[in-house]
């Protein structure tokens, strides 16, 4: 029987992406969880099959979890984040949407009349069906990301400024900044950041960490973060960064439960 990353995730009780990060050597703040994942992998005699790994786990060795996998994780929270972010957009705005799975959910909530530039194929059809004008940047298509990247893409965004750039990040290191698995994705994000009047990060709560990751941009480049909620361990550092944080109603309920637990303790 072939043991997969999904099998390990089910045994440990965590996500496939978390197991993938640990087994691929990426830093994680929860060292006890990382240790448990490695122990279970050893107990189950996990042997990564490089030829079949992408198909079995949805993880690309260069880009991390593929878009199809990421888009199925935390859907309820991601849709709530995207809906909250869309309230910040006026119909007259020019918006850039990046290739993140949470950002892709904005295609269902943006107001009519907005003009969208993107490198993500995931937003094309949903926007077009709603009658929203959307322009796709040129570049090399990367299936794992469901998006295009490269010099052509960067040059395109250098010529097309925006009112608001909505971006994602594989991890948000609260001390070093925004981190993506593959540096080849950094150029597009950095150019879009440089040419946007307002920069807003959309991020699920499980992306926050304090691991000393090498960032492609500091938190201070952002105007705001929209998330379901900021975990307790990172709230003080995020507050001290000066970046505005907007949490969804769903996330605020979860944070209130944390507070209740603290007061009972």
Short account of what is shown:
With 265 residues, this protein is an alpha/beta fold. It has helices at residues 5-12, 16-23, 31-43, 53-57, 67-70, 75-86, 101-104, 124-129, 151-159, 186-194, 235-241, 249-264; strands spanning 59-60, 64-65, 94-97, 115-118, 133-136, 140-142, 147-149, 162-167, 171-173, 177-179, 196-203, 208-209, 224-227, 244-247.
Defining traits:
14 strands; alpha/beta; 12 helices; single chain; 265 residues; three-stranded mixed sheet; seven-stranded parallel sheet; 38% helix; 20% strand
Shape summary: globular
Distance between the termini: 45 Å
pLDDT under 50 segments (min length 5)? 50-64
Quick one: biggest sheet? Answer: 7 strands, parallel
Strand content: 15-25%
Class of secondary structure makeup: alpha/beta
What is the element string, with H for helices and E for strands? Answer: HHHHEEHHEHEHEEEHEEEHEEEHEH
In angstroms, what is the radius of gyration?
A: 19 Å
What's the helix count?
A: 12
DSSP E strands, number: 14
Order of neighbouring strands in the sheet with most strands: 5-4-3-8-11-13-14
Mean pLDDT: 85
The helix content is 25-40%
